[in-house]
Structures are given as C-alpha cells and as structure tokens.
C-alpha cells in the first residue's frame, strides 16, 4: 500500500486507482467489490485494524465489507442514512441503474448485508478525521476531513477518473448511480470550499491541487 499522508494509506488494486480502499489510522475505509476481499486482506495482514467504515453503501465499496468484518471481528460503521442499505438484503443497488448494470453488479460486486455498529453523523470522529455529511450520491454518503493537514477522503461525491474509459480527470459520479445529483453538487461545492491539500477519491488517483478542484466545481451547472 502507498502512504499518502500521515496515517493515510491507499491499498493497491487493479486496474490502479479504479476502486479505492484506504487505511486511515486503524480504520479501513471502504472495501471495494466482492472480488476485492483477497487483495484487501493480503495488504492489511499484520496491520492493526479495529473498525471498518464506508463512505457509502454502494456495491463497489461495500462488496467485501461483510467478509472482512467477519474475518477480523471488527465493527462496521457508515453514514446514518445508508444504514438501511447496508442492513436490509437487496437494498444496496441503485434503483434507477440500467438492467445490465444491475445484473452485473449483483453477479460480481454486491456484498451481503451486515449490521452497522455505529451510524456516522456530521462531526463524529473517525481515526482523527471529522465526519462530513455529503449526501446526494447516496442519502447517507459521508466524507472525512482532517483540518491539520487539509486531507480529505472524498468518497464518490466526485471521481478523479472517467468510469467508462478509466482516463484520469475530475467528474461527477454517474447520474444513474446518483439519486439526487443537485444535492451531490452541493456536497461537491462544500468539499471544494475546504481547499483540500490532498483529496482521496473512491475512483481515480489522489489529487493535490485544490485550485483544480475549485475550478471543476465552479464549472458545474447551477441548479
Ligand atoms: Zn463508487
């Protein structure tokens, strides 16, 4: 895994940066798809991991959550409004996703439901970061912010990769997977205003350019 900042590591994956998992202090942030279990377990072997938190309960972030929480005997945390998605079987997938995407995700990505031990809300502390409620992509989407070095775990409020072509670049998350795009845009504006020195995305390489982030967000349509 790669060190990005103090106590912030990005796990390796293939293709690189496509579906990101972070170890922040002793908390595993996101758990990729069901296919990600082995690569995650291999990389965190020997590390102290005491909890697993999700930025949001989507199939490409919660796929290995159940397996990893069971194996390590650690609690699962996620944003309050995403608790039902994580706990009620069959509710993870985006309702308005195209059928082909749904069936692919069901076959290869979605992990089992799992009880949430701690529902995260604005201002909570996770491994030295503060929880920011950043809804829109999911109702309970959260980002993590550490003021001292301006490090930000973005989640999927924005991606730094085109999810169709895998080319680098800032984008809004796909509309079919974002039930409330206007609200997500508000969340994106809030994150850009923080001027993060380091932004870590759910998809795409880390970005150390707050101006680029601000310019991208300023160019988004006003709702
Ligand atoms: Zn995602």
SSE map:
Layout: E1 2-5, E2 8-10, E3 22-24, E4 27-29, H1 37-44, E5 51-53, H2 59-62, H3 65-72, E6 76-79, H4 83-87, H5 99-108, E7 118-120, E8 125-126, E9 129-133, E10 142-146, E11 151-155, E12 159-161, E13 168-171, H6 181-193, E14 198-201, H7 210-218
Zinc ion is lined by residues 58, 60-61, 156, 202-203.
Helix content: 25-40%
- Low-confidence runs: none
Bound small-molecule species:
zinc ion
Biggest sheet: strand arrangement: 1-2-3-4-5-6-7
- Give average pLDDT, whole number: 95
Radius of gyration: 16 Å
- How would you sum up the major sheet? 7 strands, mixed
* Secondary-structure element series: EEEEHEHHEHHEEEEEEEHEH
The first-to-last residue Cα distance is 39 Å
Helix count, per DSSP? 7
What's the number of extended β-strand segments?
Answer: 14
Oligomeric state of the chains present here: single chain
Q: Give the overall shape.
A: globular
Query: How does the helix and strand content classify structurally?
Result: alpha/beta
Structural description of this entry:
This protein is α/β, with parallel strands linked by helices. The chain is built from 7 helices and 14 strands. The strands form 3 sheets. The protein has a 7-stranded mixed beta sheet. A hairpin with a 6-residue loop joins strand 12 (159-161) and strand 13. Helix 6 (181-193) runs antiparallel to helix 7. The longest helix is centred in the C-terminal third of the chain and has 13 residues, at 181-193. The N and C termini lie far apart (39 Å). The relative contact order is 0.15. The model has no long low-confidence stretch (mean pLDDT 95). Zinc ion binds next to helix 2.
């Amino acid at each position: 895994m790669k060190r990005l900042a103090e106590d912030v590591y990005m796990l390796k994956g293939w293709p690189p940066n496509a579906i990101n998992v972070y170890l922040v202090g002793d908390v595993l942030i996101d758990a990729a798809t069901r296919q990600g279990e082995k690569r995650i377990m291999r990389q965190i072997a020997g590390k102290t991991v005491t909890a697993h938190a999700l930025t949001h309960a989507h199939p490409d972030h919660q796929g290995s959550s159940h397996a990893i929480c069971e194996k390590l005997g650690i609690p699962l945390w996620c944003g309050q409004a995403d608790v039902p998605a994580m706990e009620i079987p069959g509710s993870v997938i985006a309702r308005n996703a195209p059928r082909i995407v749904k069936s692919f995700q069901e076959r290869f990505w979605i992990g089992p439901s799992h009880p949430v031990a701690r529902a995260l809300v604005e201002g909570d502390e996770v491994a030295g970061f503060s929880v920011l409620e950043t809804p829109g992509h999911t109702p309970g989407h959260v980002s993590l912010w550490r003021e001292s070095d301006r490090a930000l775990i973005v989640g999927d409020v924005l991606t730094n990769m085109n999810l169709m072509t895998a080319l680098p670049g800032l984008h809004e998350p796909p509309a079919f997977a974002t039930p409330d795009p206007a609200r997500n845009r508000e969340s994106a504006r809030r994150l850009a205003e923080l001027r993060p020195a380091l932004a870590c995305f759910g998809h795409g390489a880390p970005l150390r350019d707050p101006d680029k982030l601000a310019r991208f967000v300023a160019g988004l349509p006003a709702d």
